[in-house]
Amino acid sequence: MAAPAARDGQVRLGGKTFVCNFSITAIVSLRDRWALESDDEVLARLDEIAKKFERGKFDFRISSDIIWASFRSNHPEVTPDEVFKMMDEAGFKELPQILTHVFKALIASAPPAEAGQARPTARRERSRLTN
Q1: Surface-to-core class of residue 126, CB atoms within 10 Å of its CB (0-12 exposed, 13-18 middle, 19+ buried)
Q2: Angle between helical axes of 24-33 and 60-71 (0-180°, round to 10)
Q3: Would the pLDDT of 5 be above 60?
Q4: pTM of the complete model beyond 0.85
Q5: Neighbouring residues of 110: CB distance < 8 A, sequence distance ≥ 6
Q6: What is the per-residue pLDDT across 87-99, written as a single tens digit (0 to 9) for each?
Q7: Cα–Cα distance between 29 and 79 in angstroms, integer?
Q8: Which of 9, 38, 66, 119 could bridge to 123 as Cys pair (CB 3.0-4.6 Å)?
Q9: Distance separating alpha carbons of residues 36 and 69, to the nearest angstrom
Q10: Which of 80, 85, 95, 92 is nearest to 26 (CA)?
Q11: Furthest-apart CA pair in the chain: how many Å?
Q12: Helix-strand-coil percent breakdown of the chain, rounded to 5?
């Protein structure tokens, strides 16, 4: 595995440390897993999920999918079912912290907004999540 890039985060799950990021591989993996038609739909859905997470709401299966996708570039051998099992073992208390690290990686990897377009909410909330 290569040295972590600036956009990478680290997550401890299942007694192991994983490098996570939202590369093109992650976005395409989610597009396929969620049966969406475009990468833009994935980014919009991630933005919606980030907003819900900021309000303290999250779905375990969707969270598992996001964590799995964030591992794809550095840990392609990890399956969605393995991530879900590790989340189950981590328990309720650790999941918000794990998801915060994953969303930080998402924010660091977010493409810059085009002129005239708003940046994703997760990006606007960067300071709140990183503090």
Answers
A1: middle
A2: 140
A3: no
A4: no
A5: 22, 119, 120, 122, 123
A6: 998 887 888 888 8
A7: 11
A8: 119
A9: 15
A10: 80
A11: 44
A12: 55, 10, 35
Residue with tokens 């997550």: 11
Write out pLDDT tens, residues 42-68. 999 998 988 888 888 888 899 999 999
* DSSP at 37: S
Q: Which two tokens stand for residue 129?
A: 């999540």
Read off φ and ψ for residue 3, nearest 5 degrees: -65, 145
Can you tell me the distance from the alpha carbon of 86 to that of 13, in angstroms, rounded to the nearest whole number?
A: 6
Length of the chain counted residue by residue: 131
Asked if 30 and 123 count as a contact pair (C-beta separation under 8 A), the reply is no
- How is residue 60 written in tokens? 């375990």
End-to-end Cα, the chain, rounded Å:
29
84 Cβ contact partners less than 8 Å away, ≥ 6 residues apart: 60, 61, 64
CA dihedral 53, 80, 36, 8 (to 10 degrees): 60
Both structure tokens of 109: 């990897």
